[in-house]
Amino acid sequence: MTPEIPEKSPIRLDVDFYRDPHAVYRAIKQRGNKPTEVVLETGMAYLPPNLRAWVVTSYEDVEFVLRDPRFRKSIDKAMPLFAASAQGGGQAQDRSSLLYDNMANNDPPIHTDLRKPLNSSFTARAVAPKRQAMRELAESVLDAVAGHESFDLVQDFAFPYSIGVICDTLGVPREDRETFHQWVQTITSDAEPEVLRSDAQRMVGYLRGLVAQRRETGTDDILTQLAVSLGESQAVAQAYALLAAGYETSANLIVTGLLVLESEPDLKARVWADRSLVPTAVEEMLRHQSPFNLSLYRYATEAVEVGGVLIPAGSIVFLAFAAANRDDARFEDPDRFTVDTPRREHLAFGGGIHNCIGKHLARLEAEVAFDVLVRRCPELSVRTPPQHMEWKASPTFRGLRSLVVAPGPLRSGPGTAGAGEAA
Ligand code: HEM
């Protein structure tokens, strides 16, 4: 249902928004789809609770802000702006941690220095050879639930698989994945400040250890690349950015992707009958489900007119990628999920200089996951009823806490060649 909101009051983004962001986006659309003032109820990490900010929803406006240098990222300069924009004087849960001083939160020249050494490791060509290892990982994660009548797609498949992929990519030991997964979950949640701070400190300590080790005995992994090309604290912050941004979004894409297919039984049957449709389906899942719902912060360095609205200097701005990806001024019939035409011009991976560095890895990862699920679970079906689905309390990461599925009889692996491969 579209909530009715008085024209002038800021929209509160709360638990209803996490459950159904598109209800809020429809309300904004009814007001003319212009930049809109909001209050983000949930605080997390460096963002205080009840933060007053602007949300940009139309495709055209989102693209404009992504490329306009008057909207900046600088974690040092933004901290006082967060504090000034917090209604009721709320404090950020963790203002001191060096984890957030990474490429995702800074503009050039810092951003260039941090991102440039990594770009070549994340091109489509660089990640393509990972396909076979990803397939083996997905097969082995699925083997662990073989024989179960049902399992949790989030905790038993999507997270272990996507964490495994990012561990292997960075060179983080897989046996540590449970531990740092718990820390990342706390750091990206609305946990109590003491809990959040202590898990952030543990994460820093853990990453420091890995970086120090790679300085002693490097290998050809990305952690070594970070350890040798950056100072210690920069290497730690980059490793955190890659870990934190690099698995939850991918896991959420797999889960919400299955969910949207489940709501379209004919399309699901087509994908299950023809695995060559998987890459197009994944592209459409990215657009339709947008696992990165609201962007990270930006702030206006001066008053800027966007879509006919003047956003004052010093305002905090979030880009609603999920809304832009359903903008009917850009996509025909945008709420419809289709596997017939890839709509690759979506903004699920952002754009401009901060476009997702992991986009080729993420696409490949999701394609392999679905290819394995389709081939090995011909009768896979969702069991959690919609009224029992619990969404993560995050304005950024849109994902379910759990989704029970029944796999049906599992076909044995390893399989034949899959989507995008020569048969
Ligand atoms: C389906 C999976 C993914 C989605 C939907 C996604 C989405 C995004 C989006 C929208 C941004 C831009 C945020 C902004 O401008 O505020 C971004 C940035 C970023 N992503 Fe991803 N991402 C995914 C997977 C990954 C993976 C696998 C990695 C790690 C290899 C990764 C690492 C990053 C990093 C480090 C940034 C910051 C880049 C910069 O600021 O220059 N992401 N991602």
From TrEMBL:
Kindly indicate whether the keyword Oxidoreductase belongs to this entry: yes
Q: Which keywords has UniProt assigned to this entry? A: Heme, Iron, Metal-binding, Monooxygenase, Oxidoreductase
Signal sequence span is: none
Q: Which InterPro entries match?
A: Cyt_P450, Cyt_P450_B, Cyt_P450_CS, Cyt_P450_sf
According to the lineage, what is the superkingdom? Answer: Bacteria
Similarity comment: Belongs to the cytochrome P450 family.
Protein name (Swiss-Prot/TrEMBL): Cytochrome P450
